[in-house]
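tool_call: predict_structure(chain=1)
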Amino acid sequence: MYFNSLGEKVSRARFKEMYNAFRNRQELIKAGLMNRRSLIKLGLLSGTGYLMHKNGLSAWGWGGGGSSGQCASPTTTPFSMNLPILPVKQPVSVSSLSPAPQINPNTAINPSTGLAYEGRTRAHQAPALGFPFPAPVVYQITQKPAQVVMSNQLPPQPVWSFDGLSPGPTYVAQYGTPILVRNVNALAGDNSGFGLPSVTTHLHNAHTPSESDGFPEDYFAAGQYYDQYYPNAYAGFNSTHKPNGDIDEALSTLWYHDHRAGFTSQNVYKGLAGFFLLFNQFDTGNETTGFRLPTFPDYDIPMMFGDRCFDPTTGIMAFDTFNLDGILGDKFLVNGVIQPVLHVHPRRYRFRWLNSGPSRFLQVHLTDLSNLSTNNLFWQISEDGNLLPKPVQVPAVAMGVAERADVIVDFSKFAGKTLYLENRLEQTNGRGPTGKVLSAGQGNLMLKIVVDLPTVADGSVDPATLPAFYALPSTNATPRVQRSFKFDLTRNGEWTINGAFFDSSPRFTVQQNSVETWSLSNGWGSPEWSHPIHVHFEEFQILQGAPGLYPDSRYSSSNNWGGGWSYGGGSNWGGGSTGTNLSRKDVVRLTSRGDVTLFFRFRDWLGRYAMHCHNVIHEDHAMMLRFDIATTGDTNSRP
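tool_result:
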């Protein structure tokens, strides 16, 4: 008996046709021949952006008929492997780095041709502003091929890794202590079907100097390295706004991932991602001090969600460049393992959730399969990298690709029970959610949680007491410039921002120490798509265009993924609503025909940064732009 990726029965002949077409496309992908523009030139892409029905090629391509056609992975038994707890990256001595770090680019080791790769072309800015060089804490990490086990029913998977791990190790950093990370590219050799061994690592969304941001064209080749300097300073330290830095803009949960122009989706899908956690005197990692959040790492667990496809014959992870709207997997990974299990104590835990994509949107619930009628509430304490002013009790958390949310779950009331993290948001193709929220037990069970460990002390704060975290910065300042951006799909099936593709040139220049507001809209050429939009470097606050973070009965169940409340930075998929998002964010979900208005302050560092769709398939097909920050800016209202 044969099935497609929706679980629908198909004939043996149809399955064979689908599989042969899939293998043919994989050969083209492996040869590095396919991107959206080359598909158009070869006549393989229709004017509406769909893969043409070519014999032996498009049987698995989404053809507009209502079926996702994404993949049909082999059967695996869920909850048969434990959730991996990602190890903490350990520093090295600066003397162990050879050659020694230097402020200016090392062009002898990392030459910049402007063709094959760029490398670091700009000096580190931090030392000129008083930061120590080399940094007091130094790391070296190697990006290299590895074999990892994602399921004990599938063969070991050939991935690209950080230090042999995928996801990579977790960096644990402190505000006020700069670090330097040497990224070494050792990805030479066979790419096992997809991915480009040319990389640039982006720390999403740290307040980082441009030359260390991981800009998409700061890539470096196999055999090269790139030194990135992270000051770990509060935004505003070099500004007229908050000269000592704004504690209310402190970040907590970040992540690092490859950002290579044109190949981000493939390289991240292949394994190049990991967590980066920032602590300070308030969010300390110790539940007896500061905000008294659950202690890291014992009761504070980062969880990276992602979905993947696997070849139905070989069981090896597969990536299909031909799914140009976005790729949906039928296997759900948490920390690199398909549907793992976690055993916990009956006490409070902090879970740091990240939707790593590549294209699926999530709405994560806590489900008890033995009592489906119960709405198991928990506490959301952050949006993306930013703690909220106070905890908010929610029945679920919504996340577009690259969004994060820290939550507190009190398992003391679930002692002896088994629960599941369940994604109940229906999505049938890469365009975005349908807007339908599935019933409890009918979604995607991603993680099994068994509350069977012994009772232990719990010194963490009870979120029900509504402890105060950081205040929200004011948005009353008059913007120097108001800019507008339309995210659209052309008649030729190409993703654009304001009608243009990504290239090396800056679209506009922001003036340092200035305030701007940006209006983002989803163009009429892509009415069925949802775009998670990410802006590098500075977080924003949503002034208009998304429902509020806190419970609000004005929003109906048809609009906000499940009824009578809104949360998570814009849970309303309908778009065009009014309201203020009471949090700071670095990713906003731009919904079907929706629009949002964002408030920014740009401070401290100069140089080039990016804005793009974080459905990374869209990003790789040119839905991205470069902007620069300089001492003098322009007033271009529609770049």
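agent: The radius of gyration is 23 Å. Proceeding to next step.
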